[in-house]
Amino acid sequence: MIVSPCISICKIDPSTGYCYGCARTIEEKKIWKLEDTTDDWKKENLINIKKRLTGWQLESFEESYTYKIENGISLFKKNLKNE
User: Fold this and answer.
1) Looking at residue 76, what is its pLDDT?
2) Which residue in 13, 18, 19, 48 is deepest, having the highest Cβ count within 10 Å?
């Protein structure tokens, strides 16, 4: 199973149409949730969204996504639970 790239920072940039947290479009978010979406599509989408991010945004995404894969929860949600 490929973990969704959502890192719980869900707000769309009006100028690009990409989510500030995961860099996906609204359409891409919908496709991730479909039962028949293949792992190949998800892998390709992960490659594409990482190309959309640069600098601290890419670093933050990588750190949060890795944490989510390893722990089953995003860093953002973890930090909310600890407050």
Assistant:
1) 74
2) 19
Helix axes 55-71, 39-52, angle to 10 degrees: 150
CA distances from 6 to 16, 36, 83 (A): 17, 19, 21
- pTM value is 0.86
The CB density around residue 24, as the number of other CB atoms within 10 Å, is: 24
Contacts of 24-29 with C-beta under 8 Å, sequence gap 24+, read 24/49
Residue 40 is encoded by which pair of tokens? 């190949």
Q: How many CB atoms are located within 10 Å of the residue 55 CB?
A: 7
Q: Report whether 68 contacts 78 (CB < 8 A).
A: no
Q: Report whether 8 contacts 79 (CB < 8 A).
A: no
Residues with pLDDT less than 50, the chain: none
